[in-house]
Every structure is written in C-alpha cells, then in structure tokens.
Amino acid sequence: MTDNLDQLKEQWRRLSVGGQRLDDANRRITDELTRRRVSTTQQRLAKRLRKYVILGLVLPVLAPTLYYVLECPLWFAILYGLFGILMMVANAFLVNYIREADLISMPVADAVRRAVNIRLWQTRIRIMGIACGAALLASLFFFIADRNEPGLIFAGIIGLAVGLSVSIPRCLKNMRLARRLEESLSEG
Known about the structure:
This protein is mostly helical and about 190 residues long.
C-alpha cells in the first residue's frame, strides 16, 4: 500500500513539474504573440495613415483647377491648397509619432500611454480635418450653386457621396487599429 502511495506521489510530482514547464512555455508563446500583434498593428496603422500624407499632397496640386476651371475665387483655391498641406503635415507628424516608438521594448505603462496619445492625436487630426473640410466643401458648394449649372451641382453631390462612402469606413478602420494597439499593450 505504501508502495502505491509512493508511486502516486512520484507521479504527482512529475506531473507538477511537467505542468510548470507547460505553463512557462505557454507564457512565453503568449508574450511572443502579443509582441508580434503589437508590432503588426503599429506598422499597419502607420502605413494606413501614410496614405493621408500622400492625399494631402494632392490637394495643392488640384487647387489651380478650382481657380481656372471652376472659376472659384483665388483665396478659396489658396485655402484649399493650404488645407491639404496642413493635413499632410499633421498626418506626417502622426505617422512619425507612431513609427518612432518601440512599443514592445518600452515599459508597459509608457507604451500604453503612448498608444493613448496616438488615439488622442488621431482624434484631434480627424476633428480638425472634418471641421476645415466641411467649411471648404460648404464654400465650394456655394460657389458651384452660384454658377447655376445643374450638372455641376449634381457632380458635386455625387462627389460628396462617394467621398463620404470611402472615407468613413477608412476612418473607422483606423480608429479600430489604434484601439486594438492600445488594447494589445494593456493586455500584455
């Protein structure tokens, strides 16, 4: 009877040691997966926001079209171009802010704080872009309506609908990526 008890104790001890090794391996794998998820999410967010930098470069190129083709006032074409430059600079700042941080090697509290700041700056830039863009679009529609060309008004409405249908899902995806980055760091 004591032999069976000793054998059971020995088997229990071996299982405990094996279970500890499995727990350690599981912890290492979980940490590695978290690091990879953080790194991938950080890179994806920066890559997506870099497209807005390029888009900001396009607006100053299109500004002369507003003046020469649509016959908008010169001050409006200049503001349109400056809006593009402002958005380009703001998004370039955010892309650099995201890329320059090695979130994986930072202390967790600092990395989470950085991710919160990324979301904060993303929100600020979005609000600034929406406010300035809405003012510019309202002015543009005023100039188009003043010309009393139904085809041009219809084209403007279609352009607005297409622009919103493309930009809103992209904006939501970027917000989800920033939130996922923060959550990944908070979990780790």
